[in-house]
Amino acid sequence: MKIIGTGSAHPKQVVTNEMLSTFLDTNDEWIKTRTGIQERRVISSERLEDLALEAMERALQSTKLTARDIDFIICSNVVNEYITPGLGCVLQGMLGATCPTIDVNGACAGFIYALDIADAFFKSGRVKNVLVVAAEEPSRMMDWTDRSTCVLFGDGAGAVVLTEGDNFESFSLTNTSMPEALYQRHKLQYTPYVDKDEPDHAVIMNGQDVFKMAVRGSIRDLNRVMQKANVTPDQVDHYLLHQANIRIIDTIREYMKQGWDKFPHFIEKYGNTSSSSIPMLLDEMAREGKIKDGDRIAMSAFGAGFTTAACLLKWTEIKYEE
Ligand code: ACO
Fold first, then answer.
1. What are the pocket residues of ligand 1 if the criterion is a CB atom closer than 6 Å to any ligand atom?
2. Residue to substitute in 19, 148, 176, 203 for testing ligand 1 pocket (most ligand atoms within 8 angstroms of CB)
3. Which of 230, 231, 282, 292 is at a distance of 20 to 30 A from 10, taking alpha carbons?
């Protein structure tokens, strides 16, 4: 398969570190030094599905396809306002598509999980065009009195349109079951029969464990996808890593012995937008002409689970109208 369209969208509300320090015991210096984040976008009056629709429509606009040409929509999402149906079902109607959809909850690695599923559908010959959309509102999962978590996240959506081709060179997915590293639990509806305690709380994260697992997992996955494709780190032009923490990105960069020019980042202005971060970054780079025809891209993401995923692909330039 190959990517023929990209799109992204983010909420209008900008939340700077200074704004957080008006109601949290935190400051710009701490957040910037420990994470790289200066501001993030947070959902206010928008609905997540509106952002996702904007990202999908922008991705379709850069192709010659219409919504009806899409054979499958794969939606990467952790939380949204619906428990059921899946967000992909909601989005399919909004977009005017008629194809089946599935939701993938691979936490921050969900976009690459969704790409791998799409790849399998292409290889089985069941599809000609697939739309993968990642739409996330992690701001709604945080305790906004907990300075150790809420400062890290932002909301947004990114999408890609895929068609038949041979640009994707390799994938690697892993899951090491470790829910205690990063999780949120919520109470389900009351029944007269439930007689157990059920936790109900915002995200709990062991930041230092997550940091170490993220670095270890990402390096392992990147090595795997490069070995599978017989590619060396020098032969990769752009490392698109999950935008969780600039220090995580820097540690992986040093291990790969590559310069910052190969490690694009926009965590400064968007924070950690979960599985949306990579497609949002890809869209921004592609529209700014920063990815050239034939460039090789490595993507790598990690998140709750603990899930990790990476892939390697060659870029075919997209002509954007604007
Ligand atoms: N402002 C000021 N001080 C703070 C803040 C804050 N926002 N948050 C924590 N602190 C304090 C802590 O209370 C602690 O104080 P103490 O020493 O008095 O106890 C001190 O700062 C140091 O805290 P640490 O947790 O040791 O700080 P660390 O350097 O590990 O940085 C961080 C914390 C940024 C969370 C880091 O561990 C990290 O980035 N981990 C990875 C997190 C991550 O990437 N999560 C998402 C990945 S998965 C996904 O995307 C869903």
1. 26, 30-31, 34-35, 107-108, 147-148, 151-152, 182, 205, 207-208, 210-211, 214, 244-245, 248, 272, 274, 303-304
2. 148
3. 292
pLDDT per residue as tens digits for the range 113-147: 999 999 999 999 999 999 999 999 999 999 999 99
Task: Report how far apart, in Å, the C-alpha atoms of 153 and of each of 37, 170, 252, 258 are.
Answer: 9, 29, 21, 27
Per-residue CA distances from 258 to 76, 200, 220, 277 (Å): 30, 43, 16, 21
Q: What is the mean pLDDT of residues 94-114?
A: 98
| Atom 37, ligand 1: residue with shortest CA distance | 207
Q: Are residues 247 and 280 in the same domain?
A: yes
**For position 205, which CATH number holds?**
3.40.47.10
Q: How far is the CA of 139 from the centre of ligand 1 (A)?
A: 17
Domain holding 29, by residue range, is 2-166
Pocket test for ligand 1, best of 24, 210, 265, 307 (most atoms within 8 A of CB): 210
Q: Evaluate whether residue 283 is within a structural domain.
A: yes
Are residues 150 and 20 part of one domain? Answer: yes
Centre of ligand 1 from the C-alpha of residue 147, in Å: 8
Q: How many domains does the chain have?
A: 2
Cα(282)–Cα(128) distance, rounded to whole angstroms?
22
Active site residue 242: yes
Q: What percent of the chain has pLDDT over 90?
A: 99
Q: What is the pTM of this model?
A: 0.97
Is the distance from CB of 58 to CB of 87 less than 8 angstroms?
no
Tokens, residue 65: 């396809």
Of 170, 158, 88, nearest to 123 by C-alpha is 170
pLDDT at 321 (0 to 100): 81
